[in-house]
Amino acid sequence: MVRESLETLKDEFLSRIAEGASEEEVERLRIEYLGRKGKLTFLFRGFKELPPEERPELGEALNRLRQFVEDRLEFRLGELKQREKERILKAERVDITLPGSRWERGRIHPLTLVMDEIIDVFLTMGFEIARGPDIEDDYHNFEALNMPPDHPARDMQDTFFVSQDRLLRTHTSPVQIRVMEQRRPPLQIIAPGAVFRHDDDATHSPMFHQVEGFMVDSHIAFSDLKGVLTHFLRQVLRPETGVRFRPSFFPFTEPSAEIDIQCLLCEGGGSTSEGQPCRVCKGTGWLEILGAGMIDPEVFRFVGYNPDQVSGFAFGMGVERIAMLKYGIEDIRLFFQNDLRFLRQFS
Amino acid sequence: MKFTFSWLREFVDVKKSPQETAYALTMAGLEVESLASLGGQEDWVMEVAVTPNRGDCLGILGLAREVAALTGGRLKLPPVLPHVKGSGMERLVDVQIRSPSLCPRYSARMVLGVRVADSPDWMRVRLEVCGIRAINNVVDVTNYVMLETGQPLHAFDADRLATKRIVVREAGGIAKLVTLDGTERELASGDLLICDGDVPIALAGVMGGKDSEVQWDTHTVLLEGAHFDPACVRRTAKRLAIHSEASHRFERGVDPEGTLYALDRAVFLLAEAAGGVPVKGMVDRYPRRVKATPIVLREKRVSGLLGIELSRREAERLLKSLGMQVQSRSKIGARVVPPSYRRDLTREADLIEELARLHGYEKIPSTLPWVRPVGAGYDFRLQRERKVRAFLLGEGLTEMINLPFTSVELNRRFYGLWGDRGAAVSILNPLAQDKTELRLSLIPGLLENLRANLAQKARSFYAFDLGKVFCLNAQRSAEEKQYLAALLCGARGHRGLRLKEELAPNLRDAKGLVEGILEVLGIEAQPTWSGVGVGSFLHPGKAAVFGFGEREMGCLGEVHPDLCEELGLAPFLVVELDFEGLVQYAPRRLAARPLPRFPSVERDLAVVVDGTFPAQRIVSWIKELNHSLIEDVQVFDEYRGSPIPEGKKSLAYTISYRAEDRTLTDAEVNQLHHELAARIGDVFRAKLRG
Question: Quick count: other Cβ atoms within 10 Å of Cβ A210?
């Protein structure tokens, strides 16, 4: 009889707990079954009235049922808590398509970016950095570079003067002289910096930037100049860039070379896909990018080196020009207008 | 130098196509800048960028010599009308060279019965294609021959010469000459003149005179073919800002042996184009024969400098193809004499360049030299610059690069950190009247950037410039320094949903920027801040200068309300630092400290002080105590308003206590803190709060 009522109670409990949909309902069920006036408690009370021989068996059954009820209540409670947590998490879901939140970053000027790239290639090749003044004297800017006062090569560099003898350097080459005046070979130097020419249009700015470089030792040959500069250009541009060296003239180098790279736009073909001449290289397929040469013996004499004992090469490049080619910029003045809409493109 | 392919072929049997010829010239250092077909005439116009050392290539003859050397074609010379022996010329004109060093050679011929008219079409077309305006047959012939030979010629109307006594001399006392462009030229004593007796008739090698110019009624032409000193021509041309075809060539070196051929060629063409009859004989004064000196060319030097082995035979072949004589050979090398038209070849290095050029740069291999590293790879200054740039960009500032030219007015208002130590550096030949000086400060540049960007509807503007500024010091010599300036305007840009509240930056944001820079540079020294001596463009109450000891390192502040009003802008902030100076304070090495072993304890302290009391005074005072248990002091709040009485403010500090060898007890810290607070109350007559 009691056993039957236990079974009924269990079935009833199971169906009740399945219906219990909230933590409160489960709590109410606990009281209803296990509380002081609960249904199970009531059975426990009736236990004492049973004949002694029935007690152990029934007692065990009763304990099992209580344990079962407790476990199920616990389990159900856990289930409900979990479900509630999931409900809350689901309700808390945000719109991931909304934009992220961050402070605006600044930008490094594109000329600095390109300058840094150039510098880093040379630093890894064992070059060091030297600096010189922007306001130079005639001697370092021209004369010691084998450009005496009436030399027509001075026409290539229109000059800003600040006094009879002082000027804004027209190239970074005077740093060569200043370093060699102070030190003896071996030297592997680059000299980055601003230079100034009396010129102002879409392709010329009165100020622009150069990186000068030179290497002087007992054994440096023209073939080394070719090797070092080819390596440099392939690092800064593309590894497969075509490079060509052709003779040119600079008063401070002999032999002198102009170095061209294959046009970055038409890739050396010289024309567009429609058969028009390429506007970047003007149809030649090549772009001038570097001037270089073996340091002229006259320059070595000016700094007190014996040209029979040392040799070296020097080179110079325009940072704006490289930046313009690299990024496809057509007007040099954009670099100095500092329009945020332009600068923000270089992240 | 512009010329046509057909014309070139009159001087050399070109074996290659125009394109191949152009490529060969380019790869030999005579860069062909353009090659264009001349519509319908089966001819081509070529333009060569002749470098300043190659005066010989400013004539077709010189280019033909190059083409012959490069492609093996045979050279030939177009026909001439040489003079017939006789004394006619000597009787008609006398030539006297008074400055033989400036005029080593003066040759002349004369043509009678010239009918001045337009040139024949073929000559006009050629000249015009080559960029020279046709004028009349006589002038055109001189230009035509100049294009052919590179030798400038001048034609005088001989009937307009009063004395026919040609004197080549320096201007000395002669003051003026009207040149054929109608301009009256002021002469300098060193200018070389061609005179008719005492009357100047031409600026030697630069431009002829108006009075002796060939005109439509000219009958008798005196043709001058002379050689002038390059530097002398250049000085005169430069000073008078005349850049003529003649001066361009003389400056770059003309063949001193070429005068007679050019004159004979011109006479031939004058006879053909203007019906002239040459006078018998000619004048050729050549007081200073320009001689080429032999150059020793060492084989070792060739291989050492170029990195290739050229056989002796190959080297000689190349040199001879350029018209050089190889005089004698020894084990060391050879004695080489360059031709008269190659005045640029005077040294061994010049010959080596010729060898490299003809051999072909392309055929020289690319090698990497072995390097002896000398302290390379790391540049302290560069790395500091990069760190600071990276910091600033994280703070939202964009880098600007500005030109250093500015106006007198801007320099007067924004004088950087030079104080009254110096004046601005002036440009003697500025590009514009508002760009006559070099900047003393980077701020005007940033103000201009601000203005331009706001005009482009930028909502805010955060920028910096790491650039050079210039100043004349007390000794009137120019100094230059690398400064860093920053400008903060408007609420800092934010990406994402719109912020509920946008805060414009204030003075402490600018100061935070400076503190950040010092931190990035690793500078531990505390700068001293002062509100005294700030620039007049700054708000007197919201600006400061700072430095180390006596040395001023920078300034910052809100711009003066007057400046805001002038610019039509809300208040904004600027910072300017002597970056180069700051880097000197940056340590070369960093040393790490071990972590503390015992915890610190923090206690706050609030005091009511006078409204003008500087918060830093209490920090400094505590630090100067050098108390072994006080680790740090920071101000964390400034408050004015109720319940603090009017004219007073409350300052709150947090003090952290730590012992190196034990954990401090609460009781110990409380006592320390209590004593400290009481002393601060006494020393600063401040009321303790809370």
Answer: 24
Per-residue HEC secondary structure of B402-464 comes to CCCEECHHHHHHCCCCCCCCCECCECCCCCCCCCCEECCCCHHHHHHHHHHHHHCCCCCEEEE
Number of Cβ within 10 Å of residue B637's Cβ equals: 13
CB B467 within 8 A of CB B482: yes
Q: Examine the fold and report which residue of B285, B315, B345 is the final residue of a domain before the chain moves on.
A: B285
Residue B144: domain span: 88-285
Give the pLDDT band of residue A55 (cuts 50, 70, 90).
confident
As a three-state string, the secondary structure of B299-339 is HHHHHHHHCCCCCHHHHHHHHHHCCCEEEEECCCEEEEECC
- Residue type for position B9: R
Q: Is the CB of B495 less than 8 angstroms away from the CB of A103?
A: yes
Q: Is the per-residue pLDDT at A57 higher than 90?
A: no
- Euclidean distance between CA atoms B435 and B415, whole angstroms: 16
- Give Cβ neighbours of residue B48 (< 8 Å, ≥ 6 apart): B1, B2, B3, B25, B30, B31, B32, B33, B57, B63
Tally of structural domains, chain B: 5
Question: What is the least distance, in Å, from the CA of A298 to any CA of chain B?
Answer: 10
Q: Cβ contact (<8 Å) for B361 and A112?
A: no
Q: How open is the CA angle B599-B603-B606, to the nearest 5 degrees?
A: 160
CA B361 to centroid of chain Cα atoms: 28
Comparing CB atoms, the residue among A112, A223, A231 nearest residue B308 is A223
3-state secondary structure of B575: strand
- Cβ–Cβ gap A104/B438 under 8 Å: no
- Whether omega before A186 lies within 30 degrees of 0, making that bond cis, reads yes
| pLDDT tens, residue by residue, B550-600 | 899 999 999 999 999 988 888 999 999 999 999 999 999 888 989 999 999
**Least reliable range by pLDDT among A203-212, A225-234, B470-479, B480-489:** B470-479
- Residue B371 domain-assigned? no
pLDDT single digits (tens) B510-524: 999 999 999 999 998
Same domain, B414 and B447: yes
My answer on whether B221 and B321 are in the same domain is no
Examine residue B368 and state whether it is found in any structural domain, yes or no.
Answer: no
B105-112 and B31-38: which strand pairing? unpaired
Name the domain boundary from B264, B285, B306. Answer: B285
What is the rounded CA–CA span in Å between residue B385 and residue B379? 10
Give me the residue label for tokens 């961050």.
Answer: A102
In this structure, are B241 and B341 located in the same domain?
no
Residue B375 lies in a domain: no
Tens digits of residue pLDDT in A321-335: 999 988 989 889 999
> Using a CB-CB distance cutoff of 8 angstroms, which residues of chain A are in contact with residue B580?
none
Q: Is residue A178's pLDDT more than 90?
A: yes
Chain A contact probe: residue of B382, B387, B397, B503 with most A CBs at under 10 A: B382
Question: Percentage of chain A surpassing pLDDT 90?
Answer: 55
Closest CA to B304 of A310, A300, A187: A310
* Contact criterion met (CB < 8 Å) for B353 and A124: no
Higher pLDDT, B79 or B291: B79
Same domain, B571 and B648: no
For chain A positions 101-140, those within 8 Å of chain B (CB to CB) are: 101-109, 111-112, 116, 119, 123-129, 131, 133-135
Buried b (16+ CB within 10 A) or exposed e, B43-82: bbbbbbebbbbbbbbbbbbbbbbbbbbbbebeeeebebbe
Q: Is B309 found in the same domain as B279? A: no
Q: The domain that contains B327 carries what CATH number?
A: 3.30.56.10
A106 to chain B, closest Cα gap in Å:
4
> Which residue stretches of A130-221 are H helix?
138-141, 174-182
